[in-house]
Amino acid sequence: MNNIPTMTKNLLIVNFLAFVATWVLEQRGIDLTSLLGLHFFLASDFHIYQFITYMFLHGGLTHIFFNMFALWMFGAVIERVWGPKKFLFYYIVCGIGAGVAQELVQYCNYMYEGMAAYQYVNAGGVQMTTDAYINLWTTIGASGAVYAILLAFGMIFPNERLFIIPFPFPIKAKWLVIGYIAIELFSAMGAPGDGVAHMAHLGGMLFGFLLIRYWQKHPDSSQHFGRSYGQEFFDNMKRRYDQRQHSTRMRAERPDPRRESDEEYNARKRKNQEEVDAILDKIRKSGYDSLTKEEKQKLFDQSRES
Fold first, then answer.
1. Structure pTM?
2. What pLDDT digit, counting tens, does each position of 293-304 carry?
3. Predicted confidence (pLDDT) per residue in 114-127, tens digit
4. Partner of 39 for a Cys bridge, out of 26, 30, 43, 170, CB 3.0 to 4.6 A?
5. For helices 6-27 and 84-112, what crossing angle results, to 10°?
């Protein structure tokens, strides 16, 4: 574990803890999948935060094992290339993108079946309300984000050779990615009811592809991942403060070409005080709004000097 990059390690730990929590709470009658899994957006149990939480839940040991194995195998490499912040941003965005793709597929099915016109549906010989039925459309798993990481590996290291069971020969990463895309497309069309969110996998890869292409065309756009926005803000504030302090010192150190005598200084102070007194009398008699712009400025300057 010490050799795994920080963000990849944290994602592995969070996914594992969420899996254990799901099992423990299930024994106590609490369905964490129903609460945090991604429901169809027209269902009553849908919440916007589920676009984040769903990708940390898994439906069984096999499900979490293969996702975490791929995350460890490819995610560690990608994080070392991009850094933890950019890697996490990519992971979360692609996970959300996978959820969006799944929601669109479910909406197409909802409209194709004409469910909006019915109050009840017959599912497997059981009659239930349409709302209860679409609440069963729940998506969980990190597969969309993991498939996006696989895509990133294939785009960054296209000619890297990998040994993949059961093939006895190495396969280039780019061909592995293309093969996975073909398998997911075939599975989505050939076995739509197998309980696997194939379109979510493809959606994660699509969002990953668009994000990587954008970064390739705009390399400066991803530089901020190397440091936080907050750090940049405070650095800029400190830079401005240092500049103001430097300007103040320069003005203070600049020699005065003409030094006032004590008499001139006292005379100037008496004149200023007489002008301020006159302004204050005017305020007492006619109010502050009766002052001219110059008189208001004079009063303001005098208050700063005092």
1. 0.70
2. 777 677 666 654
3. 888 888 887 777 88
4. 43
5. 50
